[in-house]
Amino acid sequence: MRGDGMNLRRALRLDRPACVAIVGAGGKTSAMFRLARELPPPVIVTTTTHIGVWQTQEGDRWVQGLDAFAESGAVEHGVTIVTGREIKNERVNGLAADELDHLHALAKEKGWSLLIEADGSKGLPLKAPGETEPVIPAWAETVVVVAGLTGLGKPCNNAYIHRPEIFSELSGLPPNEPVGEEALVKVLLHPSGGLKGIPQNTRRVVLLNQANDPSLMAAASRMSEPLLGSYDVVMTGGLKNKIEEEILAAREPIAAVILAAGGSTRLGTPKSELLFHGKNFLENVIQCGFDAGLKPVVVVTNNAYSQSINQNQYPNIILLNNPIRQSGQSTSIRLGIQSLPQNIGGAVFLLCDQPQIPAQLVHNLVERHARMHAPVIAPRVGDKCANPILFDRCTFADLLALEGDTGGRSLFSKYPIETVPWSDGNILLDVDTFEDFDRLRKLE
Prior knowledge:
Nucleotide-diphossugar_trans, 8-stranded mixed sheet, elongated, alpha/beta, MobA-like_NTP_Trfase, Rossmann fold
């Protein structure tokens, strides 16, 4: 599915001058310079540790010393690399802490993007941080932790891992044993591993890089779920050369917003009293959200319908009462969006009168979103666009501006619609009449 890939800037949602620190191993420096070329110029690249002299050729200019940088004034375009002056073993040192702070203040004032390589890895696919690293500035807005998946299956030793003894300690993996997915996840989640030194309130991203074959792509997909609990974004990268450097997936937390505040006026009886597969309608839809891995699951309902939910069975739902539901569906959409955490990448809107929607369909929508961050993603049955619909966070402002009995489909004229084919036409059914309910019961 390489044709769906995104570049780093899009996957990171960097739509303004950025301040990004990059750490880890397995293509970290290549990723940093790739991002530098994708961001609007001018871009400043620096390091808090060391960088290879040969790597300075990746920039349009290399300036040694902050004073020389200030005097040159040559940053109107392109990528400028700023380092210290000391060169040892073909590696040049970074700026002192006060110089880096000054460079950050200057970049912020001028509207430049600033990228910082904040540790070393000796060119190996995996690593564990040493005692004095990483050196991440407190003002970094985003930290990207890179791990090279070509290290999977390789022995835990210094041929493949920088500081294998620390990696072994953090993961519980004996020395020289093959590195598995579980061991790598443990290191990436460890406060002395991948999460080490990341300032509080900084956006945390992990890049599972070097996923250059189907087996490694599958491994990245499996690792994403446990990592998403501690990282805001889990990216899968195929950054193997300068021509084909793309992000194959950028997984973010995706919420479920279940719209269940209607009065069932067309049906004439509360849908909470109707059962499908032994559960009421709303419990079916809630279960679909959980089974598809959506977090959080938000239910916008009315007081009468909320009584039908077994909250002991679903303790983690966010249950919202809409006291002005008579003002239209837009009020429920607004309430749901306003309840979501800031790190949410999008929301799947599920309808309570469609208890037959399968979790696999929702999962397919989420996977398509991970590959391309399309604004709107919907199932397609033949030539018909169906529910449920996934709305990317870039549409949230427009969803919040809806008024009256207007739903998200009113945005279809503004945003391109990405569709996911689905062969089962039963997802087109929504239950508004007893005839619809009879049709639904035949699906049991």
